[in-house]
Specification:
By secondary structure, the chain is α+β, with helices and mostly antiparallel strands. Among the domains are: 146-247, Arylsulfatase, C-terminal domain (2-Layer Sandwich); 253-399, Rossmann fold. The protein is built from 10 helices and 13 strands. It has helices at residues 3-42, 66-79, 86-92, 127-130, 146-154, 214-221, 238-246, 268-272, 279-288, 343-349, and strands spanning 108-110, 161-165, 173-182, 185-193, 198-204, 231-232, 253-261, 290-293, 314-320, 323-329, 354-359, 377-384, 392-399. The strands form 2 sheets. It has an 8-stranded mixed β-sheet with strand order 1-13-12-11-7-10-9-8. The protein has a 5-stranded antiparallel β-sheet with strand order 5-4-3-2-6, with helices on one face. Strand 4 (185-193) and strand 5 (198-204) form a beta hairpin. It starts with a helix and ends with a strand.
């Protein structure tokens, strides 16, 4: 090493030492200021509290002593009455509820016994997308984005026009227009897309004195789209690109967990340790879908191995209203001897968002029984009269 290189190395080391010393001084100064501020707070005057009880403050007032603040928190914790534990519920004897709240909350429960008789408005599906399907008789509505599939349903492969606008306060716009007739009335079906949202509507032509221009149609459809110039889309493959854009957020594949809970099982390890499938449980799985062989399965696999058999031999799969559903059934996932947590099973079901808990006998389920950062909703199903000719099920829901 030359003398010049040695000098530069020495200067660099000296600079590093100086930086370390400077950081140490800054840290020491900051620590001293923090201690000084702490002593000031502890020596401040007491707070005069009113005689009536106050609701707990979101933050402690700056003049309140730290000791008083922590005493208040401790009293709040002492006054909190937790929900009964599952052991306390079991000690009271049957009948048990299907699901109970965790001792410290965090979930809500929907009580199916209090559901009123569903009306036609309560029991429906997405009008645009599901009009060919019968409505649900149970008072639930299938939510969907009807405008996302409107172009495929009403425009694709049919006579229509597409226009674009690049100079608007809404950003780039794509407008699709189609004339149609229903019950002797002529309509304009319109889809207007912006970066914020997509609007889909059917407007009767009777509302116009004469056939409107494209800017007039856009203004009648959206007040913010007035005074704009639209140009026709002439690209031959524009329709395929528009469909891809409209449906880029549409999800047609879903995966749900299915867990078998036996009588008086209250621990996660007990649930994931079940291997046998009773006749009632198998009948319930048959209601959910078809039992398929995973090897070389061509449908939606839901993260399961269809090549090497590492996630079991079988699973349950179905197609519901053009949506593929794969069920992660706990008893069909691989069982590992000596593993109390059964991680091979939990890594699939624990990463689902919704899980179905099947109860063959009257036993309560607690949502925090399963430790997971992803499971947010549970559907608890309990079979009634499993040996009768007509089997029925009780259901309850719990969600964060």
């Amino acid at each position: 090493m030359s003398r010049a290189d040695a000098g530069r190395m020495h200067s660099r080391r000296a600079g590093i030492r100086a930086a370390v010393v400077l950081i140490g001084l800054l840290h020491k100064s900051r620590k001293q200021n923090k201690e000084k501020r702490k002593q000031e707070l502890l020596s401040s005057a007491d707070v005069t509290l009113p005689e009536r009880p106050l609701s707990p403050p979101l933050t402690a007032p700056p003049t309140m002593k730290s000791a008083e603040f922590f005493e208040m928190l401790e009293k709040m914790q002492e006054d909190y009455i937790p929900y009964p534990s599952i052991d306390e519920i079991l000690e009271k004897g049957s009948p048990y509820p299907l699901v109970i709240l965790p001792q410290f909350g965090g979930y809500w429960i929907e009580d199916p016994e209090n559901l009123g008789t569903p009306t036609s408005s309560d029991s429906s599906v997405c009008e645009e997308e599901e009009e060919n399907f019968s409505p649900s008789p149970y008072g639930y509505k299938l939510e969907c984005k009807g405008e996302a599939r409107a172009y495929r349903k009403h425009f694709l492969g049919k006579d229509h026009l597409n226009f674009y606008c690049t100079a608007s306060s809404l950003g780039n716009l794509i407008l699709s227009i189609k004339c149609e007739e229903m019950d002797g009335t002529e309509y304009l079906r319109i889809i207007l897309r912006s970066k914020v949202k997509t609007l889909h509507e059917r407007i009767p032509l009777a509302g116009f004195s004469k056939l409107p221009s494209i800017p007039q149609i856009a203004k009648a459809f959206c007040d913010d789209a007035s005074g704009l110039k639209f140009n026709p889309v002439l690209y031959p493959k524009a329709s395929q690109m528009i469909v891809a854009y409209d449906e880029h957020e549409v999800n047609n594949t879903f995966k749900f967990g299915v867990i078998y809970q036996k009588f008086r099982q209250t621990q996660e390890e007990e649930l994931f340790g079940n291997n046998e499938e009773s006749a009632a449980f198998r009948n319930f799985l048959n209601l959910l879908g078809d039992t398929i062989t995973l090897q070389d399965f061509k449908g939606f696999r839901g993260g399961l191995d269809v090549s090497h058999g590492q996630t079991g031999v079988e699973s349950v799969y179905t197609v519901f209203r053009d949506r593929e559903i794969m069920f992660h059934v706990s008893t069909k996932l691989p069982f590992t001897e000596g593993d109390t947590q059964q991680l091979q099973r939990k890594r699939h079901i624990g990463n689902d968002i919704v899980a179905i808990i099947f109860q063959e006998e009257n036993t309560p389920f607690v949502p925090d029984m399963i430790a997971s950062n992803f499971l947010h909703a549970y559907i608890v199903v309990q079979v009634e009269n499993p040996d009768a000719d007509t089997t029925s099920y009780k259901c309850a829901q719990a969600s964060t």
